[in-house]
Specification:
The protein has 502 residues and is of the alpha+beta class. Helix content is 52%, strand content 8%. It contains 19 helices and nine strands. The protein has helices at residues 2-25, 27-30, 54-65, 87-96, 124-134, 140-166, 173-190, 203-210, 216-227, 229-234, 242-262, 269-279, 294-325, 327-343, 350-354, 357-369, 403-407, 426-430, 450-467, and strands spanning 71-76, 79-84, 170-172, 376-379, 384-385, 392-393, 398-401, 468-472, 496-501. The strands form three sheets. It has a four-stranded mixed sheet with strand order 1-2-7-4. Strands 3-9-8 form a three-stranded antiparallel sheet. The protein has a two-stranded antiparallel ribbon with strand order 5-6. The longest helix is centred in the middle third of the chain and has 32 residues, at 294-325. The chain is globular.
Length: 502
């Protein structure tokens, strides 16, 4: 009798599960919205994190849905997700109808994982309040204040490369650039001399890399938290790995207490946040911003590190890869660097670096072809009637903005596989839809650290090109392969380039 009861219960659960999944997979069809046919149990995510990078999975879905409407539908596991296709639709999401889409839908757990409660993930009024407090710390004036630190690390970077260039060695440039950006961010965000260029085994660098490393199981776990945040909260799941949280919380507590005890002030991001934490405003500015807690300070400093460490090093890696494959573009870039430095007595002043217009075009084209944040997410906060259609996007639906796919769309970029910085002349930009290039997002929730990221990337590339030439080698990826185990675009197996003295 008992065994029969168990059998009936199991069969009932299986039948209920079958009908639940079937109904979920009919979601888009019932609403007359074009969609990509899902595969149980992953939806469109089969192979993610193991065989395929998320960007390439979405690229296939984007091309299947292109031309069928302003948006289409896919399934992440059993959850229906919108993929934005039409750029005017995305303009509504980012800007015009921002009140419907102001949250990113990124999982955070303030109670158990304070570092996750950062400006990237917070929603609603909490995000608005924090953004208004932090925006003054990312002005061009504050970035200029940190410029000298970047230049100093860039000089160490130049010196570090010298022996390899003298021997025309093939080097793994991605790792070296990660150490370069670690030293910059460690200094600018924490006031810590990381010395990663001299010592590649520093704890700071090791922990920084762990932030972006995910096994297939960790990928699925992360997606579960994003897709089912309420259940994840009940289970007290954490986004950040324990060793990452423990390291950064300890480092920030010790550094903050030491500075306050000894009245130490530095020209870095942490100093600005300590001012806001203690007084609710920045020195020399009477604007009342409102105080922040230590946990809020820690979360924002952490996301500043995470946002500037891997993204900038990967951008420079891809830029050097393309320059190694296009020597004429590299020569033109080097000529600009030498010309500008000559005008500024060989100094990488803030003003000199702002004149490197062709370097900026190279960075922009790199982010077009290899956008580090290959997709963005917004969540629909209330039922949204889609303009020009009879469709309604229901409250709670995820909106995926396929940055990588848009940037590779021949409608906006003819011959998209070609690396061509001249796409980003003033005229070229003017002739394109403003939402055809969105590596930093757009609208009120765009990347607040964009200026800093561009600044350290600009200085890094200029300092390398002024002294050295990069070329492809037998170990250089051809074609490019992205590491499926990373949640951002990263070359699989590193980036091996030959370095020569100019």
């Amino acid at each position: 009798m008992f065994l029969n009861l168990i059998l009936v219960t199991l069969v009932s659960l299986l039948v209920a599960g079958y009908f639940y999944v079937r109904n979920k997979y009919r979601y888009w069809e019932e609403r007359g919205i074009p969609y990509v046919k899902p595969t149980f149990p992953f939806g469109v995510l089969k192979g993610m994190g193991g065989e395929k990078h998320f960007a390439t999975i979405i690229y296939v879905a984007y091309n299947e849905l292109k031309g069928k409407g302003p948006f289409g539908g896919v399934h992440f596991f059993v959850r229906p997700v919108v993929i934005g296709i039409d750029l005017d639709f995305l303009k509504n999401v980012f800007i015009k109808d921002f009140q419907y889409f102001h949250d990113r839908g990124i999982y955070c757990n303030e109670r158990d994982d304070p570092l996750s409660a950062n400006m990237l993930a917070l929603s609603g009024q909490k995000w608005r309040n924090l953004r208004s407090k932090l925006s003054p710390t990312f002005t061009s004036g504050k970035m200029k204040m940190m410029h000298s630190v970047i230049v100093a690390v860039a000089k160490e970077f130049q010196d570090y490369l010298e022996p390899a260039a003298q021997k025309n060695e093939v080097i793994e440039i991605k790792d070296i650039l990660s150490r370069f950006t670690t030293d910059i961010i460690g200094n600018c965000a924490f006031g810590v001399e990381c010395n990663s260029l001299k010592n590649p085994d520093t704890e700071f660098l090791r922990i920084g890399k762990r932030v972006f490393e995910f096994s297939p199981i960790e990928f699925l776990r992360m997606f579960f938290m994003s897709m089912f945040p309420d259940i994840a909260q009940i289970l007290r799941m954490k986004l950040n790995k324990p060793e990452v949280s423990e390291f950064f919380m300890r480092l920030l507590r010790e550094t903050t207490e030491y500075r306050e005890k000894n009245n130490i002030k530095r020209n870095d991001f942490l100093s600005l946040l300590i001012q806001i934490m203690n007084t609710g405003k920045l020195d020399g500015d009477d604007t009342e911003l409102g105080k922040i807690t230590f946990e809020e300070l820690a979360a924002q400093t952490f996301v500043f590190f995470a946002g500037g460490f891997e993204t900038s090093s990967s951008t420079m890696t891809f830029a050097l890869y393309e320059l190694a494959r296009n020597q004429d573009i590299q020569d033109r870039a080097r000529e600009e660097v030498h010309k500008v430095l000559e005008q500024y007595n060989g100094e990488y002043t803030y003003e000199a670096c702002m004149e490197l217009k062709y370097i900026d075009q190279i960075i922009n084209e790199t982010l077009r072809k290899h956008p580090i944040a290959e997709s963005l997410i917004r969540i629909c906060g209330q039922d949204y009637p889609v303009p020009g259609t009879k469709h309604i996007i229901e409250k709670g639906t995820f909106i995926l903005i396929p940055v990588f796919s848009i940037h590779r769309d021949p409608e906006y970029y003819p011959d998209p596989e070609k690396f061509d910085p001249d796409r980003f002349t003033k005229e070229g930009i003017k002739n394109r839809h403003p939402l055809a290039w969105i590596p930093f997002g757009e609208g009120p929730r765009n990347c607040i650290g964009m200026r800093f990221g561009m600044m350290q990337t600009r200085v890094g590339l200029a300092s390398l090109l002024s002294k050295y030439r990069v070329r492809t080698s037998e170990k250089t990826l051809d074609p490019m392969l992205y590491d499926p185990g990373k949640n951002i675009l990263t070359p699989k197996g590193g980036m091996w380039l030959k370095l020569e003295k100019v």
